[in-house]
Write a sequence for this structure.
């Protein structure tokens, strides 16, 4: 018996050592990625300084980097691509949050058990679809539809000196990104709503509240931490989405100008992640490579912030549900 106990303790120590080594390797890998990206981006960060996110001209500066005989410049303005990222993500996230949370409520509170199980499986399946599929759907269906409905020859001529209106732009990007984010919000919000203790619902019904009022006054407020976490995680995916958005965004780093009215939605944009994909053929050019690594560095900082925020909210939600139980 003592030998078996010693062997069990030895195997546990080996397992702990292996898990610790794997965890350490993961941390080192993350540190290496951050160090590598920021080292490659440092020339642009140093040269651009405080105006990094406030200066314009990203597309022109990329083109100037290829001019023969010109002295290479590491100064780039990321205002257009940065604002394109924020506006595209915020608009898509707003729509995805409304649709996703509404879908989660239907799945958990109104659908019969078998239908709820089927819808949950479907939502998780949609969340696993490769982003390039959404991009293909955007090119084949969304862009032609927008072009047929909104784009006219007169409108194209009117704004020809500023940008081309082809159907690829902010609105197409928002629509495609919304469909990509809805499954994430719906799946995680369903888990948050399902985690609400059953006695909370029963207490509401016992007080004479209708089902809709129980959902609005009890279930959603109780599960709001998980719902917020789902929105934050969806935001992280939206900001980092590259392939699908690069296929429908128009590929020009213009900051959305809402003084143009609805035309702003038809104007081309170039979010940070899409810029890395669209300009990647110029990576052999050192200034272009440094500029794209700067895009990656900005995305890493935003993603880190969102990840930490989501983790804090998730921990708070678990603690609150545990205290309620």
């Amino acid at each position: 018996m003592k030998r078996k106990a010693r062997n069990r303790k030895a195997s546990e120590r080996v397992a702990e050592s292996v898990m610790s080594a794997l965890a350490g390797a993961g941390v080192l890998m993350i540190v290496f990625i951050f160090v590598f990206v920021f080292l490659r981006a440092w020339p642009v960060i140093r040269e651009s300084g405080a105006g990094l996110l406030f200066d314009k001209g990203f597309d022109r500066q990329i083109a100037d980097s290829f001019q023969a005989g010109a002295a290479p410049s590491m100064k780039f303005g990321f205002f257009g691509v940065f604002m394109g990222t924020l506006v595209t993500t915020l608009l898509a996230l707003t729509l995805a949050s409304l649709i996703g949370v509404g879908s989660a409520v239907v799945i958990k509170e109104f659908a019969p058990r078998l239908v709820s199980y089927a819808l949950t499986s479907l939502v998780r399946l949609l969340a696993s679809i490769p982003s390039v599929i959404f991009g293909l759907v955007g090119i084949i269906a969304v862009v032609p539809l927008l072009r047929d409905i909104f784009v006219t020859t007169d409108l194209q001529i009117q704004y020809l000196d500023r940008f081309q209106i082809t159907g690829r732009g902010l609105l197409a990007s928002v629509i495609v990104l919304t469909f990509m984010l809805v499954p994430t919000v719906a799946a995680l919000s369903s888990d948050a709503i399902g985690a609400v203790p059953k006695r909370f619902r029963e207490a509401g019904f016992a007080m004479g509240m209708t089902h809709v009022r129980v959902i609005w006054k009890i279930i959603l407020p109780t599960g709001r931490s998980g719902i917020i976490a789902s929105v934050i995680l969806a935001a992280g995916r939206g900001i980092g989405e590259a392939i699908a958005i690069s296929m429908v965004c128009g590929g020009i780093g213009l900051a959305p100008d809402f003084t143009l009215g609805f035309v702003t939605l038809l104007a081309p944009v170039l979010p940070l992640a899409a810029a890395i994909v669209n300009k990647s053929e110029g990576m052999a050019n050192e200034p272009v490579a440094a500029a794209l690594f700067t895009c990656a560095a900005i995305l890493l900082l935003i993603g880190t912030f969102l990840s930490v925020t989501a983790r804090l909210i998730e921990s708070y939600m678990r603690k609150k549900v545990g205290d309620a139980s």
The chain has a mean pLDDT of 87.
